Amino acid sequence: MTAGRLRVATVVTRLQAGAGIVALRGAEALADRGHEVTIIAGSGDRLLGEAKTEVIVEPALRASIVPRDDFLAVRRLTALFSRRSFDVVHTHSAKAGAVGRLAAHRAGVPRIVHTYHGFPFHEFQSVPRRHAYIRVERRLGRITDVALCVGTAVAVEAIRRGLLPPERIRTIAVPVDAACPVSPQARSRARHALRLPGSAPVVGAVGRLSYQKAPEHFIAAMTALHRPEVTGVWIGDGELAARMRALAREAEPDARIVLAGERADVPALLPAFDVFTLPSRYEGLPVAIVEAMACGVPVVATAVNAVPDVVRPGETGLLVPPCRPGLLAGAIGYLLDRPREAARLAVAAREQLDDRFGTGALTDALEAAYQPLPSIVDREEFPCT
């Protein structure tokens, strides 16, 4: 492997949502620089059709733990990596990280890189389950050359948990389009696209309808606002869609909730919101929050993982504890009642988005991660649990 043209396999469990977007944007930026990139995904949505690089769908690569499928995915990926002679295998997300790194190691791939968008372990799990996931990640860390962590808090947690030696851990940001429109015309177009009234207050969220994102807390917060004139909009789909539709119906008439489903034009829709919120239980650094900031929308989010990298309380947005929809409602109401304060936070948030959040910075980080490091002594002991 040299510093020239590289053959890279980008492996992601689902080519969708934040991890899928970061993986796709990185892969396509690498291709633009002359590298040969193949994306391998277990599933996906519109991003599968939008990808400009080669895409291989591996159905056995699933998010849930299914031993028969997991072993099959390892076997198929090992054969693929051996046959194609990739210089680098770069994995994203927990399942693809486990299956993909193990297969790459078995195939003798020269360089194995993993991106932590968050972790499979979190405080809402039982202690035995959480410790089991940590032990798995530590073992995988021994066959990982470099870990790229989306956000400072994610990198700090990886170091604190001893997932890899510190010198193998690097922090990256999410790539967003800094040219997101901020204008009355953009707001009008976005509201028309979402079929929303032009003047009514709108509180929006973007993310998978999943346990991690806590959409039920979004609906509870909108109900706790006690403002039926405010419309809550959630953009995204997922396994909790049916349950959220039922909760949205139950919230009427105290709250109006619009579940907009999966959309391909999220950045163009964000200007429709007066406030952007994300009630996640746990996170890495969500692409949607940074995109909302780029679009000039004030943000209220939960104080989890790397979110405080960009949402600094009282400076670039407001933070509340997770699983506290009443406090979330209070923070949303505070910004709705104080448009000048909301605008101040939005301006400061947008101004912080420098070159670190551009595609060029991500591509530089990827190319650096793909180059060999000097030999490092492997650490076998992790004294802290």
Automatic annotation (TrEMBL):
Keyword Transferase tagged: yes
Organism domain of life: Bacteria
One MF annotation (Gene Ontology) recorded for this entry: glycosyltransferase activity
SUPFAM superfamilies named among the record's database cross-references: UDP-Glycosyltransferase/glycogen phosphorylase
Domain Glycosyl transferase family residues, every copy: 190-351
Record-annotated membrane-spanning stretches: none
Keywords: Glycosyltransferase, Transferase
GO biological process, one term: carbohydrate derivative biosynthetic process
Pfam families (UniProt xref): Glyco_transf_4, Glycos_transf_1
Matching PANTHER family: SULFOQUINOVOSYL TRANSFERASE SQD2
Official protein name in the record: Glycosyltransferase
Organism of origin: Amycolatopsis pithecellobii
Biological classification of the source: Bacteria, Bacillati, Actinomycetota, Actinomycetes, Pseudonocardiales
